[in-house]
Amino acid sequence: MKRLPAALLVLLAVLTLGLSVYGFMAARSREQAQRVAADRLLLYTDSIEATLKRLSHLPGTIALHPDIGAVLERRHSADGFNRYLETIAQTAGGAILYVMDRSGETIAASNHATPLSFVGRNYSFRPYFRMAIEGGVGTHFAIGATTGVPGYFISHPIRLAGKPVGVAVVKIEFDDLLANWRRAGEPVFVTDNHGVIILSSVAPWQFKRMRTLSAAETAEIEANRKFAGTVLAPLEYQASGGAFEGEVTIDGNRYLASSAKLAGESWSLHYLTPLSPILDTAVLSGLLAGLLALLAAAIAHLFRVRAQQLLLARQAREAERIRAVNRKLEAEIATRRQAEQALLQAQASLVQTNRLAALGKMSAAIVHEVNQPVAAIRTYTSSGELLLKKGRKSEAADIFAQIRRMTERLGRITSDLLLFSRRTGQGFRPVDLNRPVRAIARELGAEAQAHAVRLETRLARRPLVVSGNPVRLEQLVSNLLRNAIHAASEQAGGRVVRVTTRCDDANIFLIVEDSGKGMSAETIGQLFEPFFTTKNIGEGVGLGLALCFAIVDEAGGRISAENRGEGGARFTISLPPAGAAGRSDRADRKTREAEHA
Ligand code: ADP
């Protein structure tokens, strides 16, 4: 449906172009033809005028011949003059020369020796004779009364003692001129003052009339036998404007008529340019233009189709490229997935390995920690038995006291480990951080005193409520204070442990400071790792700070350790206040993780 109007439009455009080119070419060719016609007219008028002019002086010259008077008066034989005229006529060519007396009878003629000799003939009826015998120069076109050959007559009076006594005449015949015209093959003709065609390159048109003659004209023609009785048939033609000019049609052929007046006579020269070659050229040009336009349209169409094909091919290539990229991507994704899978497996095995390693490390530490007291207990038990057998009761009691301390130590280790094994996040509730601090400070008061350590508590006045397990919070405070007391007790004097609670807008803080010797950088790096200890065997198992870390992390807080500027260590715990969203979320997360583990 879409193609039809497009094709119609193209056809319409081609048609319009063809017609325009035809119109343009026709107009141009017509203009050109008119220009050529003007040139040709000039050429033809020149050729006629030159023919007439070339011989027009001859009658005047003959009239001046010294023998002319004697010849006219017949005092002399005309023979000599006949030859004289013949010689001149031969030299001039295309002309007959003759001399008439005052009665119009031909006395001598250049054609005296021909069968159609003018000698002895009377041409007094001719206007040119009358004009000359009256003293003027006569000109006249007529079909020869004797020869039947048309010609142009120029006459000149012959004077004797100033009076016209005869007439010298030249008859110019146009045979050569017409032969030339016919050879040129161009339709050209000359009409006289009556509109009769007197000369024509187209033979059948000769002596046809272009218009109707008046009665006076017919009578005049009859009188001077101008056309020697030839019937003047009308030339059948159709002209667009009526008059013989512009486009005319003669015998079904179309012509462009141009005309020009001839000098001297009231003759007109008509030149006809055949229109059919002009129109044929225009039609051909129009057709050619149309064809070219069609060709151009076809080529444009082909180009468009080709461009569309190229576009489609490009799109197909692009689509294929995208598909290839997609396939590559998919392959890459698959490879990544595999790699991810492999990584997960590696991670899983690493976790497993780490767990095993941690288990190994833990087992080694536990075995180390437990074996010692167990071996000692075994030795002490044997010694105790021996002392009892020997009745040395008080020594045996000392031994038993040692055994009790050993078992207490074992108990501490197992209770610490128990704390790790407990599920995190359990028993959470709002707890005023000051409460566990006060309780533990009270509990350890005696121990501090025993080591000559001053235990300072600087607690916030208002409750600092955090969300946590109260037992584990006590454990946290207890571990930190025990370490601090131990560290402080190792110093010579000024043994102080200070525990502070405070808060700011976002957090609640627990700070434990001591006057001990502080920690090395290496120690700070490993502080919170399980079983890291710098204490002697029997003094510590390295689980205290690991537990602290676990408890703080479980409550959604942070723990950090540093050396104080003035000596000793500072442990800072920050906890979110109870009800803070971040904390409970983290606690929940921890709970979930713990349950998962
Ligand atoms: P333990 O007390 O059984 O050694 P911890 O985990 O409680 O286990 O402590 C680990 C190590 O951290 C201690 O051995 C000690 O070297 C160091 N440490 C802990 N607290 C302090 C402190 N207040 N001052 C200096 N060092 C400390």
Task: Please give a structural write-up.
It is a single chain. This protein is an alpha+beta fold and about 600 residues long. Among the domains are: about 375-420; about 425-595, 2-Layer Sandwich (Heat Shock Protein 90). It has 14 helices and 18 strands. The protein has helices spanning about 5-55, 60-65, 70, 80-90, 125-135, 175-185, 215-225, 275-390, 395-420, 435-450, 470-490, 520-525, 545-555, 580-595; strands spanning about 95-100, 105-110, 140-145, 150-160, 165-175, 190, 195-200, 235-240, 245-250, 255-260, 270-275, 430, 455-460, 465-470, 495-505, 510-515, 560-565, 570-575. A six-stranded antiparallel sheet has the order 7-6-11-10-9-8. Strand 6 (about 190) and strand 7 (about 195-200) form a beta hairpin. Mean pLDDT is about 85; it is low at about 580-595. The chain binds adenosine-5'-diphosphate (ADP). Adenosine-5'-diphosphate binds near residues 479, 534 and 569.
Question: Notable features of this structure?
Answer:
597 residues; alpha+beta; Heat Shock Protein 90; binds adenosine-5'-diphosphate
Q: What would you report as the Rg, rounded to the nearest angstrom?
A: 75 Å
Biggest sheet, in brief? 6 strands, antiparallel
- Name of the CATH first level of the domain at 424-596: Alpha Beta
Helix-and-strand structural type: alpha+beta
* Mean pLDDT figure: 87
